[in-house]
């Protein structure tokens, strides 16, 4: 099983040409739908309200083979909404209308094993209101030798001005077996742009994790032990970059499950597998950029 842990909401996307699209969103939700479409067994740990928006999101997830039993729907609570405004380069800026009750409760899986993968990230993973519960799940995954994938997804440096949130981010990096972030994420976290310096900063916190650094239309790189692999981006007629990073992570996870690679296998993973994992991430990401959807198309999933 792949467990994904993150925020769920409704995305309303405004194109600069005046086109408006809407759909279920949230980094881990996007990833979950992509994996579900690929036939990967996936369960989303998340929170929703008790309204028609929540019903629409839950129905959509079920239609895409995502297990929703670990989503907590709060009684008489509205569901969060994100407004996304695409610029001329199809890059979004967001306005969030988040809605949670004062008392929140994550639904934690009863058990997690060494054959499972846990994926988490974004500002949601730093939220002080659920941090203790979230950390319990991550610690349980670590204790049971599940493979842990972390995507910090930090779009603004000011999110880390809070010392408690920065401490939580460092803890997340330290716990992960695979760390995937964009050059923008790492610039906001460490305040540096140089790849080698970024790698050194991550290695101060986590000396063993496989690291992915994505660079938009400049491609991506993978660092594993002493090896570094670089791959170009796939040329795409970009309609929206929303979900590009989420689906890069989905490509990594899909490859791991397809190849039956567990945590204990990461220490012996070979060069060819590493290169193919990097290409899987790029392939999934580029597919999403060609549409307004936050997840790969069913046609692409069926072609895998």
Describe this structure in words.
The structure is a single chain. The protein has 304 residues and is of the alpha/beta class. The chain is built from 9 helices and 14 strands. Strands 1, 4, 5, 6, 9, 10, 11, 12, 13 and 14 form a 10-stranded mixed β-sheet that branches. A 4-stranded mixed β-sheet has the order 3-2-7-8. α1 packs across α7 and α7 packs antiparallel against α8. The mean pLDDT is 94.
Please indicate the percent range of residues in DSSP E strands (runs of 2 or more): 15-25%
The total strand number stands at 14
CATH architecture: 3-Layer(aba) Sandwich
Helix and strand content put the structural class at alpha/beta
Concise summary:
By secondary structure, this protein is an alpha/beta fold. Helix content is 36%, strand content 23%. It has a single domain (2-303), classed as UDP-N-acetylmuramoyl-L-alanine:D-glutamate ligase (3-Layer(aba) Sandwich), CATH 3.40.1190.
């Amino acid at each position: 099983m792949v467990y994904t842990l993150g925020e769920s909401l409704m995305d309303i996307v405004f194109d600069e040409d005046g086109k408006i699209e809407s759909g279920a969103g949230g980094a881990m939700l996007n990833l979950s739908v992509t994996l579900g479409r690929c036939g990967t067994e996936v369960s989303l740990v998340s929170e929703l309200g008790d309204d028609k928006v929540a019903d629409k999101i839950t129905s959509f997830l079920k239609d895409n083979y995502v297990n929703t039993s670990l989503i907590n729907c709060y009684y008489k609570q509205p569901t969060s909404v994100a407004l996304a405004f695409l610029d001329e380069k199809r890059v979004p800026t967001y306005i969030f209308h988040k809605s949670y009750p004062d008392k929140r409760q994550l639904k934690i899986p009863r058990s997690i094993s060494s054959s499972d993968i846990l994926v988490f990230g974004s500002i949601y993973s730093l939220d002080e209101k659920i941090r203790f519960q979230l950390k319990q799940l991550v610690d349980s995954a670590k204790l049971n030798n599940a493979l842990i994938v972390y995507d910090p997804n930090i779009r603004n440096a000011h999110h880390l001005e809070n010392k408690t949130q920065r401490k939580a981010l460092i803890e997340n990096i330290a716990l992960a077996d695979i760390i995937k972030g964009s050059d923008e994420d790492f610039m906001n976290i460490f305040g540096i742009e140089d790849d080698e310096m970024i790698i050194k900063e991550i290695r101060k916190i986590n000396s063993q994790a496989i690291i992915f650094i994505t660079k938009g239309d400049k491609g991506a790189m993978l660092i594993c032990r002493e090896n570094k692999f670089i791959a170009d981006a796939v040329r795409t007629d970009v309609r929206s970059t929303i979900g590009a990073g989420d689906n890069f992570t989905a490509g990594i996870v899909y490859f791991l499950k397809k190849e039956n690679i567990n945590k204990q296998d990461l220490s012996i993973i070979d060069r060819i597998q590493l290169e193919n994992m990097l290409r899987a991430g790029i392939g999934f990401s580029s597919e999403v950029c060609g549409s307004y959807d936050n997840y790969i198309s069913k046609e692409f999933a069926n072609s895998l």
